[in-house]
Amino acid sequence: EDVTLLADRGKIRLILENLLSNAIKYSPRGGIIYLRAMASGAQLVLEMADSGPGVPPEERAHIFEAFYTGRAPGGHVRGTGIGLSVVNEFVNVHQGSIELVDGEFPGAHFRLRIPLRVAVAAGPTRPGAGAPATSAPGTGNTPGALVKKQADAA
Fold this sequence. Notes:
By secondary structure, the protein is an alpha+beta fold. It has helices at about 10-25, 85-95, and strands at about 5, 30-40, 45-50, 95-100, 110-115, 130-135, 145-150.
């Protein structure tokens, strides 16, 4: 069964791009990135996790703050500290929530909950904004399916 999310397409795209970019950045070469989406009542639950080092306990309270960069694990370049704060802001605009989850995956594991039908106060930000963001029909993936992708560093 497909799931349709009525939301600001541009903001949802940026949320996914930022989370995926971080997952790729912090996963080891050949590591695995996990993506799961499902409907739970009137909400879309989207989870993204990686096989990197995870977020140290002392940094968890700050990762969604603007310009917070934390410690970059060995070999990683520190970011600008904007990505996760933008993700948090855009999830909030959609009346949703984002959390860091422990236990199921070895690295950072983010869980987003967004109502399937949202009136986004900020309005469309570019062409296609506000259009439904849908799961890909015909992929054989069912809601709740776990998609694993190996991360190959460029």
